[in-house]
Amino acid sequence: MFAEKGYASTSVQEIVDAAGVTKGAMYHYFGAKDDLLYEIYHRLLAMQMSRLERIADGPGGPEERLRAAALDVLETSFLHLDDFTVFWRSMHMLSATRQQAVRAERRRYHERFRGLVEEGQRAGAFRTEPPADLAVHFFFGAVHQIPTWYHAGGRLKAEAIAAHYVDLFLDGLRGTAADR
Question: Is residue 19 part of a domain?
Fold first, then answer.
């Protein structure tokens, strides 16, 4: 409902009606509507972080693991598109404390992801310019725009978009042999 109507336009009554529970039951698990919004962010970030850690600590060279991590964040974002959409459209509606918590979780994710880029730079798989943090911001800036234009019934399927995004990202990191 938050993805369709927006957080501010969705009432608690609509939520409990859709869930088939009473307001009392909802408030037993969630102290406020804000708690539901935070849970969407936390659940998505926690799932993606767990997957990133497995990929980053897994087998393969830095480029192979970075490719897998980049594909994973895109695939899980498409798979959980409603949550992803709510994440980017409504985060500003969280309390300041909750916004800080979400930003801290997101920062941990980006730092771990950046570590894969830096590892590839040290190994000579990627050029060292641009800096790893700029490359990661560029990639995630593009990823975060997906909810503004993607439609499941569109010409390109999610898998193809993910593959194109990753190829563009890695091609930019690789540059030419003279760049490394």
Answer: no
- Residue 111: CATH number of its domain: 1.10.357.10
Domain ranges, residue 137: 32-179
Give dist(CA 84, CA 88) in Å, integer.
Answer: 7
Gyration radius of the chain over CA positions:
19
Per residue in 62-71, pLDDT tens?
A: 999 999 999 9
Tokens of 151: 């439609």
The whole-number pLDDT of residue 13 equals 87
Task: Identify the helix (H) or strand (E) that includes residue 151.
Answer: none
3-state secondary structure 41-89: HHHHHHHHHHHHHHHHCCCCCHHHHHHHHHHHHHHHHHHCHHHHHHHHH
